[in-house]
Amino acid sequence: MENEQQKEVLFAGLSAGPFQYRACVVQVSGTKATVLKAYSGSKETTSWSDFIKSIRQDFPGHSIVTAMGFDDSCVGFYCFEVPAVNEKQLQALIAVQMEIHLPLPMEQMQYSWRILRQHEGKVTVTVAAAKRDMLSEAVELARQANVDAIVLRSEAVLRTIASCCEGLGADYALLYCRRDDTKLLFVQNGILAKATTLDCELSEMTDADTSEASLVCLDIQNVISEYVQHSTEPLRLYLDGSDRFIEIIEKVLNEKEIDTSRIRYDLNQMEGDKGSTPDIECLGLALTAHDAGPQYDVFKGVYQKHSSEPKETTGRKKKVLAAAVCFMLAVLIAVSYGVDKLRLAAYEKKMDTPEFSRLLETHRLRSAVARERMDIPDVIEMINGSIPKGVTVHSLTVRRFQKIAVGGACKDPKMMYSFAEALGKCKGVEGVRPSNQNFDDKKKQTTFTLLFDYKNFTDKRKKAE
Q1: Could you tell me if residue 116 is inside a domain?
Q2: Which domain holds residue 406?
Q3: Contact at 8 Å (CB) between 180 and 17?
Q4: Residue 148 has pLDDT above 90, yes or no
Q5: Which range has highest mean pLDDT (80-84, 110-114, 200-204)?
Q6: What is the per-residue pLDDT for 328?
Q7: CB–CB of 100/264 below 8 Å?
Q8: Residue 153: its pLDDT value, please?
Q9: Are residue 178 and residue 249 in the same domain, yes or no?
Q10: Residue 237 parent element (H or E)
Q11: If you average pLDDT over every residue of the chain, what do you get?
Q12: Could you tell me if 356 and 432 lie in one domain?
């Protein structure tokens, strides 16, 4: 018991991106935080459980408090004012407002709220909400790692900025630009008020061809103008990301007379003896694990950390289980071998001809070519067959090795989820998720983008470093 009490507590931030696992471990002493080690691992060569195990093995005898990031591109943000009342009454008022704003019944949604401002008897509240079944993958990863908390990735980024940057003020916008994640974050009173994911391909941005950057900047202008339409104060836009891409975007924005500034991180004071430079998001997650401060807890009631580590199976149970598995495998191999041998004997006579060999080689070549080429008409037909009544589709973006993006609009937000559900049932389609949901006051309709993987043409490949 004494040894348990004397364990030094460390703090770790974990992130499972589309192509890589990332993490960092932080030691906190008083007000000083020191990064002990930063981690990264390819999802193609490392499993999530092995990645977590390697971190814990590096710090034996320590207790590690962990926070895992959640990709908030499928999270919708809602902002409204309610009368200033006590906390219990405020919860009831917010529940009534969410009945109006949420596109689905309350029992199908998860939401969490934070107070942005209190002024003249009114409270400005922002709510983060997501469809419950879209949280399942993150919950499974969290359970495997037995993390202490799941935090929105955007909030983790802002936590790092709050610790390592000065002079930003309480209200600003941030373009957070990474190879696999480009977001526009809006901050009010130091709190995340809205996060919008931008659909863009950074690798196509060059100094010679700024067409992709121009499209991104147009999206930025539209989102900002919609956000500040009721504000009298100008919104300062900060840029953070890969130097080459940010320089191109900054150049185009300046040409459009949009005032911008670059984020400058001061991480020197946090780097340990080995000079480990952490991922910005993972550092924010580790600091959040330490602070345990207010945040959007979208996973409340859906995920809870185990009270203790899973118990090891006893030696006898392990042996019995291993023996049973070995016996079943032996039977399965014997049966499969016998069936395959009979099939091979029947086919060998048919295959032993030059004509069949040429036919087989031609088939292999055609299959290889087909696998490298997407049948766009089939994709369009598949999407058309999935569009429910009340939904209009206005754009289809198909880029090699990128998720397919379908832009649409609907009067009733429920139809967006009906569209996503129907599309998810199509053969070859995986991971359909709504993104960039916005309400158009003029047209009185919700605009959205559905992102999804199709067969092996999108994210089924190794990420180029």
Answers
A1: no
A2: 376-454
A3: yes
A4: yes
A5: 110-114
A6: 54
A7: no
A8: 92
A9: yes
A10: strand 237-241
A11: 79
A12: no
Q: 175: which strand partners?
A: 184, 239
Mean pLDDT confidence for 397-403: 76
> Which stretches of 281-376 are assigned E, i.e. beta strand?
none
Nearest to 161 by CA among 293, 284, 261: 284
- Asked if residue 349 has pLDDT above 50, the reply is no
Query: So what's the pLDDT on residue 326?
Result: 54
Q: What is the CATH number of the domain that holds 396?
A: 3.30.1360.100
Token pair of 372, please?
């490298």
CA distances from 427 to 279, 382, 432 (A): 37, 9, 12
Would 294 be classed as within a structural domain? no
Q: What was the pLDDT predicted at 275? A: 53
Give me the residue label for tokens 């005898």: 61
Q: Where are the beta strands (DSSP E) in 84-137?
A: 109-119, 122-131
Nearest residue to 218 (alpha-carbon basis) of 194, 253, 167:
253
Q: Do 380 and 444 reside in the same domain of the chain?
A: yes
Q: Mark whether 394 and 365 lie in a shared domain.
A: no
Token digits of residue 156: 């983790």
What's the number of domains the chain is made of?
3
Q: What angle (nearest 5°) sits at the alpha carbon of residue 198, between those of residues 80 and 15?
A: 90
Same domain, 399 and 443: yes
Of 264, 287, 306, the residue at which a domain comes to its end is: 264
Question: What is the secondary structure of 413-465 as a DSSP string?
Answer: THHHHHHHHHHHTSTTEEEEEEEEEEEETTTTEEEEEEEEEETTSSS-SPPP-
Task: Report the distance separating Cα 327 and Cα 335, nearest Å.
Answer: 13
| 3-state SS assignment for residue 41 | strand
Segment 305-311 shows an average pLDDT of 61
Do 72 and 153 form a contact (C-beta atoms < 8 A)? yes
Tell me, yes or no, whether 438 lies in a domain: yes
E strand or H helix that includes residue 197: strand 191-197
Are 230 and 260 in the same domain? yes
Task: Give pLDDT, residue 351.
Answer: 47
Q: Are 336 and 388 in a shared domain?
A: no
For residues 352 and 393, membership in a common domain is answered with no
Among 339, 370, 401, the domain boundary falls at: 370
Residue 128 lies in a domain: no
Chain segment 182-230, per-residue pLDDT in tens: 888 999 888 999 998 887 766 666 666 677 778 778 888 888 887 776 5
Over the stretch 278-298, which tens digit does the pLDDT of each residue have?
888 999 999 999 988 778 999
Name the packing angle between helices 354-371 and 315-351 (round to 10°): 130
